Amino acid sequence: YRKTPVLQVGADIYCDTRLIARELERRFPSPTLYPDGGAGLAHALAAWSDRVFFDPGAGLSMGTNQAYIPAPVLEDRKAFFNFMDFSRLEEDIPHLSTQVMVALELIEQQLADGRAYLTGPLAGLADIHAYFPVWMLRGNVAQSAEWLTGFPRLLAWETRMQAVGHGHRIAMTSAEALGVSRAS
To answer: CB–CB of 10/178 below 8 Å?
Structure first.
């Protein structure tokens, strides 16, 4: 999404979430992003999350907030979210809501056997990709808090995902990042 997140290791810069995940796994295989050995399944679920879950969630975020979004930001999003028809977003809210509810239900069903995370007892890449749309909905779609109450397993999973944290990041200016790159 807008070439973020970004991972820089020396002169190598990675701007794609899937590519970053593969590079992190290659460089730091422990702890793994594929705790149950299912890299293929994790990437398939990531593709599901990107299209089936994120797209209608982003449509809801835009459609329910369009009147409050500054014009330059709205124009930027119109150019970027080419899968959305902004002239119909408000009309599409019921349909987008249904699509999001189906995705939330799938997560709830996946957790129905008591597993802590989507593919087993440990968090992995599949959870990261499924968590982002939930996080986006909670922050941008007012009715999502009400929707989520209907999914107790998902809510418990969301809490566990929040507890995973964000790791350790080193913030730097673009000039500092270019300096690291030049020195590498």
So the answer is: no
